[in-house]
Design a protein that fits this description.
This is Cobalt ABC transporter permease. With 370 residues, the protein is mainly alpha-helical. Helix content is 63%, strand content 4%. A two-stranded antiparallel ribbon has the order 1-2. It has a two-stranded antiparallel sheet with strand order 3-4.
Length: 370
């Protein structure tokens, strides 16, 4: 689904870039709330929900989500004869770490893919952020919240809602691309033709997206439901038996080993490295849905050379290294590390600004009281 330079004309690409920048700015403000939580595992937060986790761990978790999405996007899976698909990740990021933080996760992934790996055009970066990041996240999380409200308040319902939200988010992304093509497409292929082809193949890709997203969210739910943003409010507070009666446990009563998400973070990092460094060698080599539609329908005739085509990591390989599997694996590991570092750095800064704002507010309240 990575849109290259040349599919959409420069004026529309520029407008999409402005819209994407605005969406990122809004997400930075929203992510301060999502990343600034200090609710202890098993305790009740300020919003009355249970199952929060220490705010100091939210930035590394969000950085890991970005790195995991980078890794899984390297795993193209076959969906039809001669066509493959890969995870977009908007639904996964939104449900795990929140919709605003989710947009930032996808934006970090797309930026690094475009600059380091020549995947997705640089003038089309705004288009890609809108189509793959904003649309998927907004559509998926909106549908997810509606389904969670309607379905029974159980963990299984979260997994079902996750599956359906991820499934719908992919064709929604394809429709969004088609709308941009209708406004600024550089070829004369009828919009109806593009819409039918894009929607059809991306419904199939959406099934793969839904399976991957539901399995991932379901696994985290089974191990640490308090780490799933979309599941907050579904976990009961920790109870302790005192004199034969169950009472709510204070945050200090929760063992540190149970509260720390470090084992989950470490496991997620190892899985990401294995996927990108080893499993990616066995991914489908067929073109993805957009590439196939572009080639079949002729909307790729104006595609431009990538500005980062000479990057030593272009096309997910190491320049000068002849062994394709080793080259691709090392590039994947570098990509995971770079995404983890960049994502965690961004989210730490965002969270720090939230803490500084809170401290300033508290200082203002104290001065008023004085």
């Amino acid at each position: 689904m990575h849109v290259p330079d040349g599919f959409i004309d420069l004026p529309v690409s520029a407008a999409a870039g402005v819209a994407a920048a605005a969406a990122v700015a809004v997400s930075l403000r929203g992510a301060r709330r999502e990343l600034g939580g200090t609710t202890h595992a098993g305790s009740s937060g300020s919003n009355g929900n249970y199952g929060g986790y220490g705010g100091e761990q939210t930035a590394p978790l969000a950085g890991l989500v970005a790195a995991f999405i980078f890794a899984v996007q390297m795993l193209n899976f076959p969906v039809a004869a001669g066509t493959s698909g890969h995870l977009l990740g908007g639904a996964l990021a939104a449900i795990l770490v929140g919709p605003y933080t989710g947009v930032l996760c996808i934006s970090v992934v797309l930026l690094l893919q475009g600059v380091l790996f020549a995947d997705g055009g640089l003038t089309a970066l705004g288009v890609n952020i809108l189509v793959m990041g904003v649309v998927t996240t907004v559509v998926a999380y909106t549908l997810f919240r509606v389904l969670v409200r309607v379905l029974p308040r159980k963990r299984r319902s979260v997994t079902v809602a996750t599956f359906l939200a991820a499934l719908v988010s992919v064709p929604a992304s394809a429709i969004a691309f088609t709308l941009l093509y209708a406004i600024g497409g550089t070829t004369d292929v009828p919009v109806g033709t593009v819409l039918g082809a894009m929607t059809g193949v991306h419904v199939l890709i959406g099934v793969g997206e839904a399976v991957i997203t539901a399995l991932t969210v379901g696994t985290v739910l089974a191990v640490r439901p308090d780490l799933v943003h979309g599941a907050r409010g579904l976990s009961a507070p920790l109870k302790l038996k005192v004199d034969g009666e169950l009472v709510d446990a204070s945050p200090d009563a929760v063992p540190a080993s149970a509260a720390s998400p470090r084992p989950v973070l470490l496991a997620g990092l190892v899985i990401s490295l294995v996927l990108a460094g080893f499993v990616s060698s066995y991914a489908s080599a067929d073109p993805d849905g957009l590439e196939r539609v572009a080639a079949d329908k002729g909307i790729d005739t104006a595609v431009a050379d990538h500005a980062s085509a000479d990057s030593p990591l272009a096309d997910y390989g190491i320049s000068g290294l002849d062994d394709a599997r080793v080259s691709g694996g090392l590039a994947g590991v570098i990509g995971v590390g770079a995404t983890l570092a960049a994502g965690t750095g961004v989210f730490l800064v965002v969270r720090r600004r939230r803490l500084d704002t809170d401290k300033a507010g508290e200082a203002g309240e104290e001065s008023v009281r004085a």
